[in-house]
Amino acid sequence: MTEPGPKPDGPTPVDTSPIDRVSPVLSLRAATLRFGARSLWSNLNLDVAPGEFIAVLGPNGSGKTTLIRTILGQQPLTSGTIELLGRPVGHGSRAIGYIPQQKLFAQGTPLRARDLIALGVDGHRWGVPRSSRRVRARVDEVLEAVNATDYADVPVALLSGGEQQRLRVGQAIAANPRLLLGDEPLLSLDLHHQRVVSELIDGQRRASGASVIFITHDINPVLPFVDRVLYLVGGLFRIGPPEEVLRSEVLSYMYDTPVEVIHSRGRVAVLGAPEGYGVHDHLEHHRRTEP
Amino acid sequence: MDEFWGRIFDFSDYGALLVLVQNSIIAGALLGIVGGLIGPFVMSRDLAFAVHGISELSFAGAAAALLLGANVVAGSLVGSLAAAILIGVLGTRARDRNSITAVLMPFGLGLGILFLALYDGRTANKFGLLTGQIVAVDNPQLTLLSIISIVVIASLFVMWRPLSFASVDGDVARARGVPVDAIGIAFMVLLGLATAVSIQIVGALLVLALLVTPAAAAMRVTSSPLITPLLSVLFAVVAVVGGILLALGGGLPISPYITTISFLIWLVCRIVGNRRVPSSRRMVSGGAIHAD
Question: C-alpha angle A234/A239/A245, rounded to 5°?
């Protein structure tokens, strides 16, 4: 297994300054979410520009997944507003492509790789599946894009975790969404597939201008693509380019304990974040992956 | 020994009998279509145990109707719809669903036994609710059963795609705006209807042979979302109609014929499927670390 260093061409030349002239894909205003006395985040303002790649980092329980649930309309805000394409969020949306954590399909699931993609194209529509030329063409195109043509007709349950996750990216991009939401999509993937899946997501945002909100416990696989980081810790948050947020002073303040951030060979390691905050995942991960 | 087989398979006066039961055969075929179509969804939604629970409450409803002199199909419908909706609303998670089902099942069966014990009519009627007796069902009831079957089939066709999406991949379907919860409840209602119809033919104890076994058999030999329901329907129709035809002369209940055919089909598919799986999967690219 090779070390997944930075891409040869280095960080992507996307403009990282907030684009204020274009209307945002997603907009949170003074968004606050509280469960009883515990505040997950308060007064969160965030405009996600078209084509912007935002990584959401933070320890377990800091409200990363809750943020996704809020965007999907499954968790109302305590106060503030959240708008998708200029309208209050509904219960899910056709404009969203959602990539969940890897969850293997049960044996016997009556789906082949191409059927999973087809659900992304027209699975929301009523009636029986119609094998129209348009749908078939789009499915073939997506299979090609995620490099899954070889196993297009293999039952999904027989595919490896990495292959299934590649298909999930395909399913999410199949309808050309305006916003790609990833909820730890790289979790439990090997390094090769972490890179493949990250590059597929980045490729789609380049090709279609979709925005990306990407929850991850390890930023390294997506570091070359990330425009801004949203870091959540115990009710506090910081938003900004990775080099501004992922600094020892910033994270030490947020964790309220000395934390060291090391940038080395295009990778980032966060050391000393308190146990139970989940950030030690970074270290675990690196110990496993460094030769 | 000949006498034993003679009782199980008796084809004398077959032509005359066939005319008598042709309506039963039509109803049986419709039921086969219902069972075959709904079965793959029962499997992908992990509802096999729930089907059994629904059928016991349906049995209680039918027994109550028998005791009160009301329409047995109507009683059975009330019981199964109540159970299906209860399981659907309270049991969105598999673990909750199983415990609710396990609680409802003996309760329903107990109620049914009570009602049957209080009932003084023909014992064949009593037994029929548990083990099935399509020939005993009269023509007006057959019409009712057929109408319900057609309603279930038509509704399944209307919700096919979002139901498939929600069944195999609920979180993603929800994110895409599919009304996953509403579809789940609607599906439970259809399942309640299908169960109530099945009970009249194979009986409360054997419903799974129609609503689960054919789909389970089909899913052993194919993963195509088109071929799975087609095969499942074929298997279910062969089991029901074949069962009715074989049982015709003997005067024995139909259900053992249906359940045996259904089981044999599953057995064959299981053997064929085991051969198929290893060969159909080529290694495509580097392996991945699997979750859990």
Answer: 85
